[in-house]
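(Structure overview)
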Amino acid sequence: MKKGPLILLALGVIVLIALNLAPVKPEQAPTSPAKPAPVANTPGDTDKVQSPDQQVRQALEQLRDGSTPPMQAIMAIRSVAEEHPENVLAQMTLGSLSLQTAQYEKALSRMEKVLALTPKSSQAWAVKGRAEANLGDTTRAIASLQKALQYSNDQNKAPLQEKLSQLQPSKN
């Protein structure tokens, strides 16, 4: 099995565990280094500011290495997505995590934002198709997965074709 799906699966499990065990509501979470760096308000502060993508990558790394509680890392990514709704990495990450935690409507909403910005994103089409399939909209799921297949590279085609074959009626 490829590493990408395993990493996403591991992130999903971590998120599920965190959601079940987290004793603190997100709005009550203490401030910590996992929060995105504040936007500079003064000219001298610009050297300390991370780009939105850097903030998302930092939060993901902290999530992976366990240096910060999972919900705190997710809230940092969510903060980036709220401050920068056009940030594809933040929207894609939150959409993928939503899919893994069975929040299919949220995953679909995030993928629609991503696809508005990058309409040829195979990964976004694939997540959208899986969310639609889980919501019972087989027709749209097939169409989305076919788009994902159209834009994917060769190494990603097999899992997409497998999912499509599960959704499409047998031709025998």
